[in-house]
Design a protein that fits this description.
12 strands, 581 residues, four-stranded mixed β-sheet, Rossmann fold, alpha/beta, 18 helices, ABC transporter transmembrane region fold, six-stranded mixed β-sheet
C-alpha cells in the first residue's frame, strides 16, 4: 500500500494547491454564470448580517418599551422584529440555496477537469509510472472534489459573513461601550470600546487554544479518507474477482486482509474521535463561558445608569455577533481540517498527472498519422519505464489488407509492441507511422465490458444505439452466442456473468459490428477452443476481407491463419530483435 506524504497544516504547498484547484472552475465557460451566483451569494450573506443588525435594534426597542411600559412602542418594535425576521428567514434560506447551486457547478467543473485528465490515453502510463504514489483515484474524483467544492464555498462565504459582522457589530459594540465604568480597587475609570477589547481578547485566547488542541485533526482526516478508500476498494476488488477467489479457496485470506484494512480504519477513527472530543470539550466550554462575559462586563454600566435594559439586550446581542465572528476559526476548525486533507489529495493527484505528462514529453517514441495506407516502423526501440531495453531498433512495414502474426517467446515484448503502436507505450525511441483517418481496434486478452446493457457492451467503443438489434443478433449467431440475443437490454455485471470464452466472443463481435480497417488481436482468442478459433479467423477473412489483421500468435495454429510474420527473437544477454518475413 502506498504511503503518501502527510500534509503540513498550511504553507506554500497548500497555497499553490488551493490556487490551482480554485482556478479550475473560474477558467471554464460556466464561470460567468458562476460569478453571478457568487455575487448573489455575497449579497445574501451581507444582507443576512444587516438583517441581524436590524434585529438587534428591534430587540433594544422591545426591552426599552417594556422597561418604560410604553404599549404602542412595544407593539411597533414587535412589528419591526417580525418584519425583519421574515426577511431574514427568506434571505437565509436563499443564501443556502444559491450557495448549493454554485457548489454543484463548481463540483461539476472540478470533476470534469480531473476526469478529462485521468480517463485519457495517459491513464495506462500513469499507472505504470506512478501506481505506487496514487491511491484510490476514484475516491479523489468522486468524494474529494465534492467536499472541496462544498468546503471552499462554505468557508469563504462564512468568513466573509464573519468579517462583515465584525465590522458592523464591532462598531456598534464600540459605541455602546464607549463609557463603561471600570473599577480597580477604589479607582474607577473607563476604557473606550471596552466590550470590543474584551471580545477580541477572549476570541484570541480561544483561537490559540483551539489550534493547539485541534491541529492533529489535519493528518488524522487525511489518513481517514485514505484508509476508508483502501477498505472500500478491497471489497470491490473481491466482488469483481469472487469466482477466482472462491475457486482458489482464498476467501479466508481475503477476509483477513479486509479485516486488517478495517482495523486501520478503527485505529485511526479512535484517534480522530478522541481529538474531536477534546476539541469539542474545549469549544463547548469556551462557548458557555462566553455567554456570561457581556453580562458581567455590562452590569456595572447598567447599575450606574449608563445603560438601559434595552441597551443591555443590544450589548449582549452585539457581543454575541462579534464573538461569533471572531470565533469563526474555532467553529470552522474541523471543517478546515477536512478541507485541507481534500486539497492535499487533489493536489497530489494533479502532481502525479503532471509528472506523467512531463515523462511523456520526454518520451522518444512518436506515433505519427500519415497519408500512406501502410503502417511503418522506423528505428523502434522499446524500453521498460526504468530504461531497460527489451527490443532494439526495429524496422518493418505492414501494407493495408495484410494478415500478420507476431510471434516470439513469452516476455519478448509482443504486447508492448502493440501498445506502442496504439500510442500508450511511449518508453523508448523511434517512429511509428500509422495511416490517418482509419479506424483501428485493439482487442486485449482480457476484454473490457463496460457497465450497462449487453447491447452497450457489444457496441463498445461505439455508443449504444449505433447498431440495430438485428445487426447485433446476426453477429451473435455468427459467433455461437444465440442465447444472448434475448438479453440485449439486460443490465448485468457481464464480466462476472459471462465466461472468459464468452467474453472474448463478445469482444470479437465488436469487430464485426464496428468493421475497423485495422484489427489488432493480442491473444484475443486464447480462451476459445481450436474449432471456434479457426472459425473466427475464417469469419474475419470473409466479413472483413479488406481489413488489416495483426495478431499476437501464442501458438503455431494462430500463426497459420496469417500470411506474414513478425518474429521477436531475444538474444542471449541482450534485447530482442524484430525479424519480418
Amino acid at each position: 500500500m502506498p504511503h503518501p506524504r502527510r500534509p503540513a497544516v498550511f504553507g506554500r504547498r497548500f497555497a499553490h494547491d488551493l490556487w490551482r484547484l480554485t482556478r479550475i472552475y473560474w477558467t471554464t465557460p460556466d464561470a460567468k454564470r458562476g460569478a453571478l451566483l457568487f455575487a448573489l451569494a455575497i449579497v445574501l450573506e451581507l444582507g443576512t448580517v444587516y438583517g441581524n443588525f436590524l434585529i438587534s435594534d428591534a430587540e433594544r426597542r422591545i426591552f426599552d418599551a417594556l422597561a418604560d411600559k410604553q404599549i404602542a412602542a412595544f407593539f411597533a418594535a414587535i412589528g419591526l422584529f417580525l418584519g425583519v425576521g421574515l426577511l431574514l428567514v427568506l434571505g437565509s434560506t436563499y443564501r443556502i440555496y444559491v450557495r448549493q447551486l454554485l457548489e454543484v457547478r463548481w463540483r461539476r467543473g472540478v470533476t470534469a477537469h480531473y476526469l478529462e485528465r485521468w480517463m485519457s490515453a495517459r491513464a495506462y502510463c500513469q499507472a505504470e509510472l506512478h501506481g505506487s504514489e496514487l491511491d484510490n483515484p476514484d475516491q479523489r474524483i468522486a468524494e474529494d472534489a465534492r467536499d472541496f467544492a462544498a468546503s471552499v464555498l462554505g468557508l469563504s462565504l462564512s468568513l466573509l459573513s464573519a468579517v462583515a459582522t465584525l465590522l458592523s457589530f464591532g462598531g456598534l459594540l464600540w459605541t455602546l461601550s464607549a463609557h463603561f465604568p471600570l473599577r480597580v480597587g477604589s479607582t474607577e475609570g473607563w476604557v473606550p470600546g471596552l466590550m470590543l477589547w474584551v471580545a477580541l481578547a477572549y476570541a484570541s485566547l480561544s483561537m490559540w487554544l483551539t489550534h493547539l488542541m485541534g491541529r492533529r485533526l489535519v493528518p488524522l482526516n487525511f489518513d481517514r479518507m485514505r484508509f476508508e478508500a483502501d477498505f472500500r476498494y478491497g471489497l470491490v476488488h473481491f466482488r469483481d474477482n469472487v469466482e477466482a477467489v472462491t475457486l482458489a479457496r482464498g476467501e479466508t485470506l481475503e477476509r483477513l486482509g479486509a479485516l486488517e484494512r478495517f482495523r486501520r480504519i478503527v485505529k485511526n477513527w479512535r484517534k480522530l474521535i478522541r481529538a474531536q472530543r477534546n476539541l469539542t470539550l474545549l469549544t463547548g466550554g469556551i462557548g458557555q463561558a462566553n455567554g456570561l462575559v457581556p453580562l458581567l462586563v455590562a452590569a456595572p454600566a447598567f447599575f450606574a445608569g449608563h445603560l438601559t435594559l434595552g441597551g443591555i439586550a443590544q450589548v449582549r446581542f452585539a457581543y454575541g455577533q462579534v464573538s461569533g465572528a471572531l470565533s469563526w476559526f474555532i467553529h470552522a476548525y474541523q471543517e478546515i481540517a477536512r478541507w485541507r486533507a481534500n486539497i492535499e489529495r487533489l493536489g497530489s493527484f494533479a502532481e502525479v498527472m503532471d509528472k506523467t505528462e512531463e515523462k511523456l514529453e520526454q518520451a522518444g517514441i512518436h506515433v505519427v498519422p500519415t497519408e500512406r495506407p501502410s503502417l511503418l516502423i522506423r528505428d523502434l526501440e522499446l524500453k521498460t519505464p526504468d530504461g531497460n531495453v527489451f527490443l532494439e531498433r526495429a524496422n518493418a512495414v505492414i501494407e493495408a489488407g495484410e494478415r500478420v502474426a507476431i510471434t516470439g517467446p513469452s516476455g519478448s515484448g509482443k504486447t508492448m509492441l502493440l501498445r506502442a503502436i496504439a500510442g500508450i507505450w511511449p518508453f523508448g525511441n523511434g517512429r511509428i507511422e500509422v495511416p490517418a483517418r482509419t479506424h483501428m481496434l485493439f482487442l486485449p486478452q482480457h476484454p473490457y465490458l463496460p457497465l450497462g446493457s449487453l447491447r452497450a457492451a457489444l457496441s463498445y467503443p461505439a455508443p449504444e444505439g449505433t447498431f440495430t438489434d438485428d445487426q447485433i443478433c446476426e453477429v451473435l449467431q455468427l459467433l455461437g452466442l444465440e442465447r444472448l440475443t434475448t438479453r440485449l437490454a439486460d443490465v448485468e455485471p457481464w464480466d462476472q456473468w459471462l465466461s472468459t470464452n464468452e467474453q472474448q466472443r463478445v469482444a470479437l463481435a465488436r469487430v464485426f459490428l464496428n468493421k475497423p480497417e485495422w484489427v489488432f488481436l493480442d491473444r484475443a482468442t486464447s480462451a476459445l477452443d481450436d474449432a471456434t478459433e479457426k472459425r473466427v479467423y475464417a469469419l474475419l477473412a470473409e466479413h472483413l476481407p479488406r481489413s488489416t489483421l495483426i495478431s499476437v500468435a501464442y501458438r503455431p495454429e494462430v500463426a497459420g491463419y496469417h500470411v506474414r510474420r513478425w518474429s521477436l527473437a531475444p538474444r542471449e544477454g541482450g534485447p530482442a530483435v524484430l525479424l519480418s518475413t
